[in-house]
User: Which sequence fits this backbone?
């Protein structure tokens, strides 16, 4: 019930034009959304993250252009039924089985801070080769763990980022994007990099958009279970 997809009018659609019903709503960075209580903003953020993991790990069909103009929020005056409107499906991309399998190994390894698991997936997907240095392997696995810090367990030490004792992550107050950019630039200057699989570029772009969306919502919540339910179960079900 929290997701709304505009109804298309097939009579006015063609191979290049999609005509849908008009949807009312406001942007995520609007004042009316910023003024919502934290509980409601957290609910919207959780729904946005769950939408992404379901697109990737269930449907294997990802909307890879997650800028804020492609979504609206319908603020409910009663306070209980705020909804996300999904507007633009022009950049949808199917994710192949083989890529998703290898990517999932990396994701599960990063979620569990399991460096050998990350390396296993990175070798399968072609991001780590047999002639790579140990320094590159260490830098790559550490970066993967940094990227998943919003989903860390609070008992892990050292604790990265703005994570409290309950595992709630302060998305709005986090400087993770800046730290990741700085580290990626350092790695680019230090190591001989190779082109990643093109699917990875689209998937990572969507993940970055999800982080930005939750940061704008100024969420402060525990969301590890959302990714655990979809990502970790995906690996445990594989042979």
Assistant:
């Amino acid at each position: 019930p929290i997701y709304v997809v505009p109804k298309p009018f097939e009579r006015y659609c063609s191979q290049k034009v999609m005509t849908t019903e008009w949807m009312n709503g406001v942007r995520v960075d609007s004042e009316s959304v910023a003024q919502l209580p934290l509980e409601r903003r957290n609910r919207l953020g959780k729904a946005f993250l769950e939408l992404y993991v379901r697109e990737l790990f269930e449907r294997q069909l990802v909307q890879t252009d997650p800028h804020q103009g492609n979504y609206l929020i319908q603020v409910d005056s009663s306070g209980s039924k705020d909804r996300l409107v999904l507007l633009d499906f022009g950049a949808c991309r199917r994710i192949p089985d083989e890529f998703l399998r290898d990517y999932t190994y990396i994701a599960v390894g990063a979620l569990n801070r399991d460096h050998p698991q990350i390396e296993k997936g990175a070798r399968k997907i072609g991001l780590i080769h047999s002639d790579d240095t140990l320094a590159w392997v260490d830098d790559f696995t550490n970066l993967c763990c940094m990227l998943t810090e919003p989903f860390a367990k609070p008992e892990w030490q050292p604790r990265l980022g703005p994570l409290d004792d309950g595992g709630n992550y302060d998305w709005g107050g986090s400087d993770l994007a800046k730290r990741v950019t700085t580290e990626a630039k350092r790695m680019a200057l230090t190591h001989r990099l190779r082109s990643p699989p093109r699917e990875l570029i689209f998937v990572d772009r969507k993940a970055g958009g999800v982080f930005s969306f939750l940061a704008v919502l100024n969420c402060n919540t525990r969301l590890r279970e959302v990714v655990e339910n979809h990502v970790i179960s995906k690996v445990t079900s594989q042979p």
